[in-house]
């Protein structure tokens, strides 16, 4: 098996070259690893190979986007068929209608769809649509939840004990965030109905929407309670506000995404990742009366929106092929693998006498190096000892041929078999054994 970092001289060389032309050798903060990241060369099925020829089970799927892994024949054929016809036009194509048709069919809450180039843009346009529809400025979001790189969506993403009070304060993620941005975002704790009710009682007439990921990755990958989401809809609607579901990641949980599993119909839904078949994509969808803010047929719309590569036919064709291949049987297969691995990882923590637990649903799971109940962002906030364990865990898995997120997130893909899941679990078990020995 490869040993990180000694068995990756090619990656080291590329990183040294990258440092000369990119800040910190990086164009994507999420893939940075100290002392250098692994550079991918190719992927096939559920595996990737780095530039040094080392093979890995890919348990991050480009941060959950590659639900079919790599080189899926249907997706490859769709892209190859489109390339000689043109990759992007200053005109609409049939392909965007067909993918929109599929998404509207799978999401009962969505009457109409508008495409973007990323999940960040999908969330941004959902927030702007809520403002345009309600004519109100503020949004409510969950402390610690990641929703992309839009200023307003980043507020309180990485708040720390230094600024914690009884209720989360709106804190900047990036230096230089304008105070006006912080003033228009209200951060609340996760799964706390009474805190949500109190915020709306105080500021309800200024709130355009509540933005929520039903199983927020950065905030712990803890599923929202159904009663909490039901109350959220009731509280928001009573105040004339909307509910936005960020399903950029959670849409991979089922045929109709997380909202289908929970039986909740949000007003707007942001999508991305799996709907592009491995190409840059995002979308916002929702009720027809709200989506009408984008409608240009009567003149300048309430919310103008463009994008040079939005709904380009390569992405649309790849996304359509990928989504058609994502059958109900595919979800059942991923659910079985996910449940088996979550149970196995939980047992491994106990076997090694190591404080920790495994949470998630469907094809997603996340490890936490803590034994107390995980309920929200603050309950999973890692101290220095936990950060050290995450680093050892991530790099230990690299040495055993498993690629995961540095913060403990795992995503499964449809090409994975039970044998693959067994090999992944063995690598996790051995790595947790090492972490326990070092603790």
UniProtKB/TrEMBL annotation:
MF annotations from Gene Ontology: pyridoxal phosphate binding; transaminase activity
One matching Pfam family: Aminotran_3
Cofactor(s) in the UniProt record: pyridoxal 5'-phosphate
Family annotation (InterPro entries): Aminotrans_3, PyrdxlP-dep_Trfase, PyrdxlP-dep_Trfase_major, PyrdxlP-dep_Trfase_small
Gene3D superfamilies found in the cross-reference section: Aspartate Aminotransferase, domain 1, Type I PLP-dependent aspartate aminotransferase-like (Major domain)
Top-level taxon of origin: Bacteria
UniProtKB keywords: Aminotransferase, Pyridoxal phosphate, Transferase
Family affiliation: Belongs to the class-III pyridoxal-phosphate-dependent aminotransferase family.
PANTHER family referenced in this protein's UniProt entry, alphabetically: GLUTAMATE-1-SEMIALDEHYDE 2,1-AMINOMUTASE (PTHR43713), GLUTAMATE-1-SEMIALDEHYDE 2,1-AMINOMUTASE 1, CHLOROPLASTIC-RELATED (PTHR43713:SF3)
Protein name: Aspartate aminotransferase family protein
Species this chain originates from: Mesorhizobium atlanticum
Lineage, highest ranks first: Bacteria, Pseudomonadati, Pseudomonadota, Alphaproteobacteria, Hyphomicrobiales
